[in-house]
Structures are given as C-alpha cells and as structure tokens.
Amino acid sequence: MSNIQKNRISIDIFGTQYVILGTESKDHIRHVASLVDNKMREISSKNPGLDVNKLAVLTAVNAVNDYLKMKEELERLQTEQQTEKEL
C-alpha cells in the first residue's frame, strides 16, 4: 500500500464538472483546470462551430505543442549551460 496523500477536488472545465484525484495540491489542480478551461474557451471563441470532442482534441494538441516547445528550450538551455561550464 502507498502512503501518498491523494487530493480529490471537483472542478469545472468548459461547463462540465469533473472530479479529479491526484497527488498534487488542490491549488495546483485548480490552476491546471483553469488553464485547460481558458484554452478551450479561447479555441472555441475562434472556432464556434466545433463540437466539444474536437475542441478537447485541439486543446490537447495545443497543450502538447506548448509542452514540447518548452522542453526543447529547456534542453537547449541545459546544453548551453553545460557547454559554458566546460569552457
């Protein structure tokens, strides 16, 4: 058995209630939900005809794209920092 504390929180994303169970703080979970909700609303405002499933997929694609760009930038900075240390 694991002794990891799990937080259960009810959140609203794009008008739908979800119960999230996670090890992160409730504030963190609320923040993530807020970011997802905001991104869905942003995409929906630009594409009002999208159904919720397509909207969710576009939101996920946008989130993963942002994640990959940040990951690549972090790796670039780490490589640059390592190179500077070696000089």
Nearest-integer average pLDDT: 95
Largest sheet: 2 strands, antiparallel
Number of domains: 1
Widest sheet, order of strands:
1-2
Number of helices: 2
Radius of gyration: 18 Å
User: Overall 3D geometry?
Assistant: flat
Spans where pLDDT lies below 50 across 5 or more residues: none
Order of helices and strands: EEHH
Give the number of DSSP strands. Answer: 2
The fraction of residues assigned to DSSP E strands is: 15-25%
Describe the structure.
The chain is an alpha+beta fold. It has one domain. 64% of the residues lie in helices and 16% in strands. The chain contains 2 helices and 2 strands. It has a two-stranded antiparallel sheet with strand order 1-2. Helix 1 (26-46) packs across helix 2 (52-86). It is flat, with a radius of gyration of 18 Å.
What's a concise summary of this model?
This protein is an alpha+beta fold and 87 residues long.
Topology:
Layout: E1 7-13, E2 16-22, H1 26-46, H2 52-86
Antiparallel strand pairs: 1-2
Keywords: Cell cycle, Cell division, Coiled coil, Cytoplasm, Septation
GO biological process, one term: cell division
Coiled coil: 60-87
Features:
Bac_CellDiv_Activator, 2 helices, cytoplasm, 87 residues, Cell_div_ZapA-like, alpha+beta, two-stranded antiparallel sheet, single chain, Cell division protein ZapA
